[in-house]
Amino acid sequence: MAELALEQTMDLGDYLAAFRRRRGMILLVAGLIFTIGLITASVWPPTYQSSSTILIEAQEIPSELIQSTVTSFAAQRIQVISQRVMARSNLMEIVDKYDLYKKERKRATTEEVLGKMREDISIDMITAEIMDPRTGRPGAATIAFSLGFKSESPQQAQKVASELTTLYLNENLKSRTEKAAETYDFLSTEADRHKEEIAVLEGRLSKFKEKNLKALPDSRDLNTQSLQRAESELATIDTQIQSLEERKIYMQGQLPLLDPYNAGDIMSPNARLDALRTQYISLASRYSPDHPDVTSTKREIEALERDTGNYASPEDQRAQLERLRKELVRAEQAYTQDHPDVKRLQRQVATMESELKNPPSTRRKDPAPINADNPAYVSLQTQLAAANSELRSLNTRRAKILDKIAEYEDRLLQTPKIEQEYRLIARDLEQASARYQATRAKQMTAEVGQEMEKERKGEKFTLIDPAVLPEEPISPNRPAIIFLSLVLALGAGVGSAAVAESMNAAVRGARGVAVLLQTAPLAVIPYLPNEADTRAQRQKKRLAIIAVLGGIIILLLLVHFLFSPLDVLWFRGLRKVDRIVGD
Q1: 3-state class of 475 per DSSP?
Q2: Residue 508 pLDDT
């Protein structure tokens, strides 16, 4: 039977008949679902949102004149400010101040409440296409942003949005001022550090100059000139010393020839001593040291030296030796080696050399003759003393000049090494000074930028649209809920009827009988309603009219309370009619 019923094809009439049979079910299911949708749209609490718009204004003074110390992009700075404003302490203060989320605070944790509040806060960036001055290309830039807050109470939405706006404005001003102050403090610290470094390097350079004052690279030319002058002066002194030495030798050779005493033909002890010395040299050149004449002459010389105190000085002996050597050289040039004069001079030179090698222990300087009265002798002796004094002075000067030459040469030798160290310190000082000057320039720029931020001449947030009391909720969308409820109700009603009809295996109509019996029925007897059926039909019509009227009333109430009052709609309609009639 079921299979046969399924094989029956249905037309529009069958569907209409099924709709009539199942209209009660359709109306019941659709009415129930639609009623649930209406109740949901009615009892769903409204959510209001209040928003404020903040404009991001560029700094008033051109950046070519004054550079700001805050260089981050506006969108980035807004995100940073958002993190600071939405800190736990700030949000909890707002929650306590305006008594937000009463129900949630009773059953949820603090973090969950703060998370709900962060979800209710909205930030929307407003961008515009501008030309980037750095790249010369068009791009999107944030010129403003809107800050909103959602709440079930319009008053709370407005107050919290205003509070958040104030926090954003104050935090932006605070962050820019702090950033400028931090930049200035950092550059001030760096400038002080570079200044201390410069002071240390200057002290180091000053000590280095003080220690190597005369060997610095700047003194190289002066040292070279001083060395040349010292060498020239040394050459002059050497010439003077040589001249004085020759003059001294001459005077020493002439002095023994003069008698210090003007005693006539009788020889004085000193003259006798000088003659014996000359005689001794002559005898020593002819005889052996043990010869009686040699030994007697030597004893007489020693006795006269003890009596007169006139001992032969090494200088006199060397001078005499030098004189004998010169005579020997002239004799060797004039005669052969076997010539008697050559041999005599050789023996005299050997004798003088022996005397110099083995000087007597009592030998001392030849004192000036006492009470000499020979004018020539006294004059020569004075000249000799003056020559000795001048020689000593020149030798002293020569020693000093030699020390100076050595000092100048040492300075010149040390100059390359000292120059390297000097340039290293000077380069460090120059670099430190350059860093200090650069830091000072940045510090001055930061100081001007700090003053610009204090006077609010830099980039700033300006409130152009404050938060107002919202008049309409942003959610829920009641018309959409009602429309979706109506569509869902109709679909559910028709669907339930279709399911019920498909599950019913009853045979309906002549065609159903023909399909079932495989033959056409002989006659079709229509259904004749009785009085009870008539009363039931009237009752259903009355209920349908009441349901339609109730639906119309409910629809009018929904329009009145959810959309706009009916009187307002009535007057709007009248105005439109008058406008149409007037046209």
Answers
A1: strand
A2: 65
Whole-angstrom distance, CA of residue 329 vs CA of residue 342? 9
pLDDT, one tens digit per residue, over 64-95 is 555 555 556 677 888 888 888 888 898 899 99
Distance CA 436, CA 448 (A): 18
Percent of the chain whose predicted confidence (pLDDT) is above 90: 3
Tokens describing residue 214: 């005369």
Query: pLDDT at residue 262 above 50?
Result: yes
138-151 and 121-131 beta bridge pairing: antiparallel
Most confident of 75-84, 147-156, 358-367, 404-413: 147-156
Gap between the Cα atoms of 212 and 411, Å rounded: 9
3-class DSSP state of 443: helix
Length of the chain (residues): 583
Six-digit token string for 106: 């009773």
CA distance 363 to 313: 7
Query: What pLDDT, on the 0 to 100 scale, is given for residue 420?
Result: 82
**Which tokens belong to 546?**
């009441």
Strand runs (DSSP E) across 25-120, as ranges?
Answer: 48-57
Helices 23-43 & 478-503, crossing angle to 10 degrees?
A: 160
**3-state SS, residue 461:** strand
Which two three-digit tokens encode residue 229? Answer: 């002058």
Q: What is the dihedral of CA 450, 456, 459, 461, to 10 degrees?
A: 140
Q: Classify residue 549 as exposed, middle or buried by CB count within 10 Å of its CB (0-12, 13-18, 19+).
A: exposed
Q: How many helices (H) and strands (E) does the chain have?
A: 18, 4
Nearest by Cα to 509 from 8, 172, 156: 8
* CB contact burial 423-435 (16+ within 10 A = b; e otherwise): eebeebbeebbeb
d(CA 390, CA 402): 18
0.70 exceeded by pTM? no
Residue (of 145, 96, 157) closest to 121 by Cα position? 157
> Torsions phi, psi of 266, nearest 5?
-75, 125
| Per-residue model confidence as pLDDT tens digits over 530-557 | 788 788 778 877 877 887 777 777 777 7
The closest alpha carbon to 349, from 335, 332, 362, belongs to 332
Residue 564, strand partner residues:
none
Sheet holding 48-57, edge to edge: 121-131, 138-151, 48-57, 460-465
The verdict on whether omega for the bond into residue 369 sits within 30 degrees of 0, i.e. cis, is no
